[in-house]
Amino acid sequence: MPNCQKLLAIAGAIGNDEFNSELTDEFEHLKHYVNAYLWDEASGFYYNRSRDGQLSTVKSIGVYWGLLKRTTWGSQLSLRAIT
Fold first, then answer.
1. Which long-range CB contacts under 8 A does 38-44 form with residues at least 24 apart?
2. Residues 47, 36: contact at Cβ < 8 Å?
3. Which helix (H) or strand (E) element contains residue 39?
4. Residue 19 pLDDT
5. At what angle are helices 2-14 and 20-37 packed, to 10 degrees?
């Protein structure tokens, strides 16, 4: 997701907006997926999901990238989510 934002910034800097709608759509799709499928309401944390569809029970540093890049939804952005 951060790559979409970086590419949009680069495109703006060089005056090329050819792919802006695709990048924006990709960012929104990924943001929705992360919040819909990687969030565990019971623990208040984002987890990886395995190929069989089960959420991992191991907390990962990767969750913090979503918080830093503002891909989390307001209701999930709480102290409980980052502890």
1. 39/76, 44/76, 44/78, 44/80, 44/81
2. no
3. strand 39-40
4. 84
5. 160
Can you read off the two tokens belonging to residue 42?
């019971």
pLDDT digit string (tens) for 10-44?
A: 888 898 888 888 888 888 888 888 888 888 888 88
CA 71 vs CA 13, 15, 41: distances in Å: 23, 26, 16
Q: Assess contact for 47 and 13: CB atoms under 8 A.
A: no
pTM more than 0.85: no
**Residue 13 identity:** A
73: left (phi over 0), alpha (psi -120 to 50) or beta: beta
Q: How many angstroms separate the first and last alpha carbons of the chain?
A: 22
Instruction: Give the model's pLDDT for residue 79.
Output: 43
